[in-house]
From TrEMBL:
Gene behind the chain: prcB
Quaternary assembly: The 20S proteasome core is composed of 14 alpha and 14 beta subunits that assemble into four stacked heptameric rings, resulting in a barrel-shaped structure. The two inner rings, each composed of seven catalytic beta subunits, are sandwiched by two outer rings, each composed of seven alpha subunits. The catalytic chamber with the active sites is on the inside of the barrel. Has a gated structure, the ends of the cylinder being occluded by the N-termini of the alpha-subunits. Is capped by the proteasome-associated ATPase, ARC.
Annotated propeptide span(s): 1-53
Taxonomic source organism: Spinactinospora alkalitolerans
Signal peptide location: none
Lineage, highest ranks first: Bacteria, Bacillati, Actinomycetota, Actinomycetes, Streptosporangiales
Catalyzed reactions: Cleavage of peptide bonds with very broad specificity
Pfam families assigned to the protein according to its UniProt record, in alphabetical order: Proteasome
Keywords: Autocatalytic cleavage, Cytoplasm, Hydrolase, Protease, Proteasome, Threonine protease, Zymogen
Designated name of the protein: Proteasome subunit beta
């Protein structure tokens, strides 16, 4: 980065002064063109420039939160990617998932990871979950110009709040509005179907595996009605990704565990294609 050096070959003052605890503010001062929202507006049809990442679900259970996403990315009516990873660990106790313009969403998630790491190094402590939610809101607002061009990114933030001893879910709109969701939520093109499934399947006493199964069932329902959402592909061994965050931190469920749960869902659908039913009373 040539901006790091002055004419004498020494590091610029911004790199040696303590400065702000926000990496985004630092980058904006040193090289603002690297920020996602500072690019020149695109003229023309943007619909096929980047794949679209779709359906994400999250739900809380006693002691934590589960985040799950399908693997499909689409470009118009074309399947652009069958095994995309849309879930990003942002620090030990939080994760972000993306829906919308995939390229910008991935860049936003990785920049958010660096933002949290930078804060922790500068301040000597982790940002609170509320603080993380607010920082992400500011970052999304910075992408407004790109969103107006059609490159909309809508993330979902989940994390474990040690002050409340519970998992929490935060959703966002395209202009950076932040909203806390309770119990469960879904984003992406298949979200309306996934949320309908979760409404019937969710229980307050779900354990970790039960929450993971409910997430997989809801993604199956989304894939059943939304062509942009990918369901379990048992022949290619491509299954949804599932992250769990508890007071022990973030971890991704092993592929073999997700495969076992997903295959049980598929087997159940062979007997009951519309999935499990909720009791009427």
């Amino acid at each position: 980065m040539s901006e790091a050096f002055e004419g004498s070959g020494r590091l610029a003052a911004a790199f040696v002064n303590r400065g702000t605890s926000s990496f985004i503010d630092f980058l904006g001062a040193v090289n603002p063109d690297l920020l996602p929202g500072r690019r020149e507006p695109f003229q023309g049809d943007s619909s096929r420039l980047t794949p679209e990442a779709t359906t994400i679900v999250a739900l809380t259970f006693p002691g934590g939160v589960v985040l799950a996403g399908d693997r499909r990315a689409t470009s118009g009516n074309i399947i652009a990617n069958r095994d995309m990873d849309k879930l990003f660990r942002t620090d030990e106790f939080s994760a972000v998932a993306i829906a919308g313009a995939a390229g910008i969403g991935i860049e936003l998630a990785k920049l958010f990871q660096v933002e949290l790491e930078h804060y922790e190094k500068m301040e000597g402590r982790s940002l609170s979950l509320e603080g993380k939610a607010n920082r992400l809101s500011t970052m999304i607002r910075g992408n407004l110009a790109m969103a107006m061009q059609g490159f909309v990114v809508v993330p979902l933030l989940v994390g474990y709040d040690d002050s409340r001893e519970e998992g929490r879910i935060f959703s966002y709109d395209a202009v950076g509005g932040r909203y806390e969701e309770h119990r469960y939520h879904s984003i992406g093109s298949g979200s309306v179907y996934a949320r309908g499934a979760l409404k019937k399947l969710y229980r307050d006493d779900l354990d970790e595996e039960g929450a993971a199964v409910a997430a997989l069932q809801s993604l199956y329902d989304a894939a059943d009605d939304d062509s942009a959402t990918g369901g379990p592909d048992v022949y290619r061994k491509i299954f949804p990704l599932v992250d769990v965050i508890t007071d022990d931190g973030h971890r991704r469920l092993p592929a073999e565990d997700v495969e076992r749960l997903a295959e049980s869902v598929v087997q159940g659908r062979s007997e009951r294609p519309d999935g499990p039913t909720a009791p009427l009373r």
